[in-house]
Amino acid sequence: MTGANKRQRPRALRVILALVAGVMFAGFFALGTWQVSRLQWKLALIERVNQRVHAAPVAAPAKAEWPKLNAEADDYRRVQLSGVLLDGATTQVLASLERGIGYWVVTPLCTADGIVLINRGFIEAGVGGWKPQPAPQMAAADACAAASGPTVTFSGLLRMSEKAGRLRANEPDRNYWYTRDVLAIAQARGLGDGTAVAPYFVDADAPTARAAGAVAGVQPIGGLTVISFVNNHLVYAITWYALALMVAAAVVWVVRDARKQKS
Question: Taking a C-beta distance cutoff of 8 angstroms, is the pair 125, 101 a contact?
Fold first, then answer.
């Protein structure tokens, strides 16, 4: 192998390594910048939610507004609504809180616009002999037409329907529920199609939950909405920028070492 070929190979290798390093630096830097953007978005979201949670309650969205609702614009809005509860269609959804394992008590509320699911609060597992209740075999219109009871008013936080769980899927046939999937619960309870039921549920606050009365002899504890947002974007941004800096430092070290060898 001639001296010229020996010089060309390291030079070509250096060019390839420089290109790889450049791509890595640009990629890490872009990821870091993206995480900074996500951090700003998350902080703005948290601020909006805080404002909604502490605002005065407004009327719940009318039926005409249901198709336009979305999590970013409407989740955690404080609302107020009135209607008649369908106690026979109550569903218990597994809940794990700091106070222990139990169930969210979710009861349909017949309003002037249709049915809205109300999370009346938390009941500890085993308290009061609370057991799953059978689904009524009736259509939504018949359910509300046959509903008897006093008109009750709830205030609380509007929550968009939860998605099916990744680890444990709801089992309507066994009446086991792990997420507050509005449409699935409505269908299991014979409340008609999705157009008759609001695409959200309401987490009742403590005073209105108590005023609605006990369920199966037990008083649900309202006002326990868990508001928590995972915000690791700053850590991710620092990590990506650090990796970009390490690549840049490695390139500088290689260039300096190559110059020393030439001299």
Answer: yes
Helix axes 3-53, 233-262, angle to 10 degrees: 160
CB 162 within 8 A of CB 179: yes
Q: How many residues does the chain have?
A: 263
Give the whole-angstrom CA distance, residue 32 versus residue 76.
30
Distances (CA, A) of 203 to 22, 152, 207: 51, 15, 12
HEC states along the chain? CCHHHHHHHHHHHHHHHHHHHHHHHHHHHHHHHHHHHHHHHHHHHHHHHHHHHCCCCEECCCHHHHHHCCHHHHCCCEEEEEEEECHHHCEEEEEEECCEEEEEEEEEEECCCCEEEEEEEEEECCHHHCCCCCCCCCCHHHHHHHCCCCCEEEEEEEEECCCCCCCCCCEHHHCECCCCCHHHHHHHCCCCCHHHEEEEEEEECHHHHHHCCCECCECCECCCCCCCCCCCHHHHHHHHHHHHHHHHHHHHHHHHHHHHHHC
105-118 pLDDT, tens digit per residue, is 999 999 988 899 99
Q: Indicate the Cα dihedral angle 141, 143, 147, 152, nearest 10°.
A: -80
Residues contacting 116, CB < 8 A, separation 6+: 60, 81, 83, 108, 109, 197, 198, 200, 201, 202
Stated pTM of the model: 0.76
Distance CA 39, CA 37 (A): 5
- pLDDT above 60 for 138: no
Rounded CA gap, 160 and 183, in Å?
11
Query: What is the average pLDDT value for the chain, to the nearest integer?
Result: 83
